Amino acid sequence: MQVNNLACDRGERRIFEGVSFTLLPGEALVITGRNGAGKSSLLDILAGRLHPASGAILLDDAGERALPECLHYVGHRDALKAALTAEENLTFARGFLGNPALKPREALDAVGLAHAARLPVAYLSAGQRRRVALARLLVAHRPLWLLDEPTSALDTASQETLRLILENHRDSGGMIAASTHSPLFLQDAKEIRIERVIPPPSAGEGAEQSEAGEGASSIEHSPSPDLLLRPPSPAKGRGQEGETL
Questions:
Q1: Within 13 Å of residue 42, how many CA atoms lie on the same side as its CB?
Q2: Counting Cβ atoms within 10 Å, is residue 15 exposed (0-12), middle (13-18) or buried (19+)?
Q3: CA–CA distance, 63 with 59 (Å, rounded to integer)
Q4: Is 218 left (phi over 0), alpha (psi -120 to 50) or beta?
């Protein structure tokens, strides 16, 4: 996946600009920044849930699939039906997403919740609900995983389980982009940090202030931002670590 000079507006406010990075098969990207910097908005753009103000996203090997069909997205909210059991939630997700992988019981076992398969999600703790949401990653094959604060509500043991799941996905050629305030301890993960850019004093009083990825120096507008899917290309290995904006 190649991301070129993304910018994001919410209402009339520029949230960030100048965000560019490349993510190869087997690589992970950690997105950091203060609350409100635009981490979730960046993931929403990558997921196709939000249109960028400018920039482009190019994804290799997508074939005829649309961008959302190539990824899993786990956001702040767990997106579970409280009246359904953990197993029923995953059964629905497996059928809806297509390209099935693990069975619901197997996915729950992988996150340490096989014993809760028949419990309504409403009866589960916050950490358990989070693990059910993350188990959706395992019931359908998708090459790109987009995770917003994936360790939220997880205890130490569950965080380690998640880390192993993420590393297994990378070992099979999958890609991960995750926003987080907590270390994910992913080997050789890239990192970008979204920060507020403060205009210099010479800009004068009343100058426009914007939030952007570090190093962005200007706002570039495009009349029709592109979200593109590239034709299939040969698989690539893990890239070099340390790509930072």
A1: 35
A2: buried
A3: 10
A4: beta
Asked if pLDDT for residue 239 goes beyond 50, the answer is: no
| 130 neighbors 80 (Cβ within 8 angstroms) | no
pLDDT band at 219 (very low <50, low <70, confident <90, very high): very low
In sequence order, the β-bridge partners of residue 22 are 2
Calculated CA dihedral for residues 105, 109, 115, 119, nearest 10 degrees: -50
Pairing mode, strands 210-213 and 190-197: antiparallel
Q: What value does the CA radius of gyration of the chain take, rounded to a whole number of Å?
A: 19
Kind plus residue range of the DSSP H or E element containing 13: strand 13-22
Query: What is the CB-side half-sphere exposure of residue 147 using CA atoms within 13 A?
Result: 28
For the stretch 185-218, pLDDT in tens is 999 999 999 986 555 555 444 444 433 333 332 3
* Structural domains in the chain plus CATH codes: 1-61+145-154+171-233 (3.40.50)
Residue in 31, 12, 19 with CA at minimum distance from that of residue 180: 31
Phi, psi of 31 (to 5 degrees): -110, 120
* pLDDT tens per residue across span 121-146: 999 999 999 999 999 999 999 999 99
Reported as type and span, the H/E element at residue 148 is strand 144-148
